[in-house]
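WARN no homologs supplied; continuing
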Amino acid sequence: MGELRYGWVGKILKVDLTKGAVTTVPTSEYAPELIGGRGIGAMIYWEEVSPECKAFDPENALIFMTGPATGTLAPSAGRFCVSFKTPVPVKECYCLSVPGGHWGPELKFAGYDGIVVKGKASEPVYLWVHDGEVEIRSARYLWGMTLTNLMLQIYKQHGSKARVLGIGPAGENLCREAVIINDHEHATGIGGAGAVMGSKNLKAIVVRGTGAVKVAKPKELMDLWWHFSRLVTRKPGEKEYPSIHRSLCDGLYHGGHIRHCPGHPQRPQDDETYFKNMGLDDPICLMTDAINKGIIKLKWGGCYGCPVNCALAWQSSDIEIPSGSGQCNEWMSWATYEWAGYGKVCGIPALQFSSYVDDLGLSVTNTLGYHFYWFFELVKLGVFTEENTGVPLDRPWTVEFIKGILEKFAYREGIFDKAAEHERFLKSLSEENPAVKPIYDRVVNHPGYYVHWEILGGGFNMPSPGAIVHATESRTWPFRPSHLAMGLGAPPRRGGGRGDMPRLPGLSKDDIPAAILLHNLDINSDCITYCSWAGMPPFFSRYTPDGLGDPALGAKVFSAVTGISMSHEEMITAMDPIFNIERCIHVREGRRKEDDLYNEATFKSPGWAHTSKGEFIEVMEEYYRLRGWDPGTGIPRRSTLERQGLKKIADELESKYGVSVPE
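OK structure emitted
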């Protein structure tokens, strides 16, 4: 393969912690065919991680991979992809996450497109990567630190411009939902990457670089940045929104996130009416009150190269409220706590919750079940009591409750040692206690090894193109494609998210082309890499006369960065082999057609009243045909793989892994 002149910096770092060995491989072994990020990460996983490998085995790989646009002026291109075998589901499998921030760009400035970490150090260590140099250093004095203390110590040692990616006590103690956090506000989410990192005795990866990323067409790239900025933010004087729309995910979550959960009222577009009916104060008022009193100061921030700036930082004068920062879905979390009716938690206590979760290295998205859902159900059943937890369960969302639960969970104290096993914990409880089985069946019990997260059977994955995407995704909680899918029919409207989008009453084969397009667009964003949370590529815009955005913006950015001309259609088609690599990874790990189904609770939910399980299976079989997979097994056909340049993978599926690949 030829030299990569623009976008990629040319080297991928490989670290074997068991041997203490550091080597590099040229990025050109994988790019430009696999683009970067998710594409290269999937291929390296195929090469490095066997199906027999367990998530906490030293042979499991943590693959940190940037894309060609990372570290350039490409709009919202601050993300990087983390690929690994997840420890969360009972049937452990390939997973990925795509956090944002500044760590990914800094890695490229330091001279590397990615880092592949395998093995297990004999004692705690951290990696110090700086301008082409790599050191494996002792982290014995850092082990046990929270993220705040870790970052302060790293800044003291390596300077405030260093970028820190690390784990907290939860990752060290192998809590299966533990996350990796960088810049103290961007996390790897549900897949349990922090626990994998902890299993390797790796506390942090610290990077600092003074290099640069060359781009082929800098003027064109600058124009595209302004073009994207205009599509997603308003100019002064435009009155459709009272302020700059900081995050498209804010609009998507509002109204759509909690409204389909059982037992919760439907949230109207009128926020004030909703909170009044719930007997709650408007969370904006709670926050404004704290700001007016001088307790909290807020400011906006964002990931590298992004004009949206949806991250929020706060400084607190109250000793009980840690100062901190959070990315866009912090807004989702705060609002969800309030909507769920667990007390007035969207103001100051929500800040406490977010700060403690991040500091301990837990998943803000899924600590103790999705936002404590099954935790509170188990409290009612007497599984969790004040005696066995040591926390005031009768005073939820107090400081004592929040700190007590999170710290005991992160340090695996008492009953939380078992609870930290998450799905395995619920499974064992359901076998011992018949009253728990309905909870397990609703939350976890699915035919395959995926936590599709139907949100307790409430029909979160509504019958739409997004439901097809979710059913076949490679991550344990494939969320972002549904943002596009639910909004396919019309641009988002103020005050409403997915719940306000027009929908057909059921799912049909006519939805399949949209599902494939949406999925490929999502994979593309994870390869280049840019942020689909920020609306990249933007299908719609509130700030254009016709309401249309620019779905082809990703291909334009790729061409401007790399100098490789690709049309939008060519770029979307180039995602097919990347998705098929991921599918073949799962196939060799045991995944088949039946693993693409949702649990029974979803099909019985009101949202699926117009689409039966049988009808969904028929749609999926046609989807397999259009993808070039065998409709009877869900395995990609050999002819499909060979046409996409994946003959080696087809051969290895049969010769090494005993999989019969259909012709």
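Residues 11-208 form a domain with the Aldehyde Ferredoxin Oxidoreductase;  A, domain 1 fold (CATH 3.60.9.10).
OK
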